[in-house]
Design goal:
Elements (H helix, E strand, L loop, with lengths): L5 E4 L2 E4 L2 E3 L5 E3 L4 H5 L19 E4 L4 E4 L2 E2 H7 L2 H10 L5 H12 L9 H6 L6 H15 L12 H27 L12 H10 L12 H11 L7 H10 L5 H13 L6 H15 L4 H8 L18 H17 L4 H14 L2 H5 L7 H11 L6 H22 L29
Antiparallel strand pairs: 1-2, 3-4, 5-6, 6-7
Bound molecules: acetyl coenzyme *A.
Acetyl coenzyme *A binds next to loops.
């Protein structure tokens, strides 16, 4: 098929252009396929479909490579922090000192929520899932900031700067407020003299009369967690953001949809599921081997393992595995779940079932252990993922919205339902 982009259907050959990316990945450009041949491309789950050209993030899943704007994730994790990497992902280049400080200031000074949002929190049942609240309230930001929420396809860069700072900042306040409402704790105001992550932890974890104090490097560990989640090319939630943005929907509405997509256990919800799995293994007294057998026989899924793109170790999981050990060391905590995770990982990596299917730990495998050690409640793990992923979603929203050639996303289908038939009146239908 790669033969000069020729596809043979029946007795006819059809020519299609070949597109090549900057890292050498090739695609056959099928945009004219239906017009030329009457066929459509069927690719349920989109495993072979390139939905866009993008200059943001490069992944080579076979080799376990992840780069943002050309910079390897290992170098960013070692030398950068969440806000600087967010700038890089959103604007394409590392900032200079002046741009970085302005970017940080813009975000840090936007932490306070509109006072009219308070009754919204009160309206949710106490058992409401925080991802539902996050998605709803991020969408509601378009009502509090209508000037940045016009639904049109043209990006005004000034508006994007302002809307993205509002979103990055307030998403922390919404998460913290959700948690505190659940526990009946008073709100803690955002403090723009603190770093992004310290301010968030203080809003989230301060107790009445006892302000949060970071004695064990929690802010650094969470900052690294955010950085490692900042973007991951065309995953389910990012594709959702692009899909919604393709209709011209505003930034807040598009990202609210991405948050909903992230919620599912096959995607961001896996970080919660990993801890629940490790806890149930621990409670049952299993050393992990019974669970591995259950996963092999299809009775369970080894959560935090496997990835649509990585057929090698997820580079983020490597960094987070090390970070988990260092966080627990600093806190002086012995978490039996870390031992179980290590045993599971060893067992799976030596087992033919996992080897032959190229199933390796993904970003969620160790992240929950870190979040738990910092004191983040399990129900909020996916919210932490969402906060980290905001820059990537925004960069993708900006990229699609800035592209004058981008069209509304509208896939086709293969219809498998009934053929045409005549309507049957109620009294004539079989009872
Ligand atoms: N445990 C056991 N078996 C697995 C696992 C797993 N975690 N993941 C995949 N497999 C098996 C499948 O059963 C299938 O086996 P088969 O060939 O015998 O039928 C084979 O490996 C291929 O798996 P697919 O489901 O085709 O892989 P797909 O690319 O569709 O799914 C996914 C990827 C959703 C991540 C899957 O591996 C999974 O469910 N993992 C657990 C959940 C998880 O950790 N999700 C987080 C992903 S990372 C992220 O979103 C941040």
């Amino acid at each position: 098929m790669e033969n000069n982009g020729i596809i043979r259907l029946g007795d006819e050959n059809f020519d299609f252009p070949i597109i090549e990316g900057s890292e050498g990945e090739k695609a056959i450009d099928l945009r004219t396929l239906r017009g030329k041949t009457g066929f459509i491309a069927f690719d349920e789950g989109y495993g072979n479909t390139g939905s866009c050209e993008s200059g943001i993030t490069f992944i080579n899943g076979e080799q376990g490579i992840l780069r943002h704007r050309g910079y390897p994730i290992e170098q960013l994790a070692e030398n950068s922090n969440f806000l600087e990497s967010a700038y890089l992902i959103m604007y394409g280049e590392l900032p200079n000192e002046v741009s970085l400080r302005a970017f940080e200031r813009n975000i840090l000074s936007n932490g306070t929520l509109d006072s009219n949002m308070q009754p919204l929190f009160e309206g949710f049942p106490l058992c409401a899932h925080p991802m539902a609240i996050l998605s709803a309230l991020v969408s509601s930001l378009s009502t509090y900031h209508p000037e940045y929420a016009t639904n049109n396809r043209k990006v005004d860069l000034g508006h994007f700067d302002a809307a993205s700072a509002i979103l990055m900042s307030k998403v922390r306040s919404i998460a913290a407020m959700t948690y505190r409402m659940k526990l009946g704790l008073p709100m803690v105001k955002s403090d723009d003299t603190k770093s992004y992550t310290e301010d968030f932890l203080s809003m989230l974890l301060s107790k009445p009369e006892i302000p949060f104090e970071d004695t064990c490097g929690a802010a650094n560990a969470l900052d690294l967690f955010f950085l490692l989640h900042a973007d991951h090319e065309q995953n389910c939630s990012t594709s959702t953001v692009r899909m919604v943005a393709s209709s011209g929907a505003n930034l807040f509405a598009s990202i609210s949809a991405g948050i909903s997509a992230l919620w599912g256990p096959s995607h961001g919800g896996a970080n919660m599921a990993v801890i629940e799995m490790l806890e149930s293994i621990h409670a049952s007294g299993d050393d992990g081997s019974r669970f591995v057998e259950a996963a092999k026989s299809g009775q369970a899924k080894l959560m935090g393992f496997g990835h649509r793109v990585y057929k090698n170790y997820d580079p983020r999981a490597k960094i987070l595995g090390k970070s988990a050990v260092s966080v627990l060391d600093k806190i002086g905590l012995q978490d039996p779940l870390l031992d179980i995770a290590r045993r599971l990982e060893r067992a799976a990596l030596e087992d033919d079932y996992f080897i032959s299917r190229k199933l390796y730990p993904n970003v969620d495998f160790y992240s929950g252990i870190i979040l738990k050690a910092i004191g983040i409640p399990v129900e909020f793990f996916t919210v932490m993922f969402a906060i980290g992923r905001i820059p990537g979603w925004m960069a993708n929203w900006k990229e699609i919205s800035e592209n004058p050639k981008s069209r509304i996303h509208r896939p086709r289908q293969i219809y498998t339902g009934s053929n045409e038939r005549n309507f049957v009146k109620l009294e004539k239908r079989a009872q």
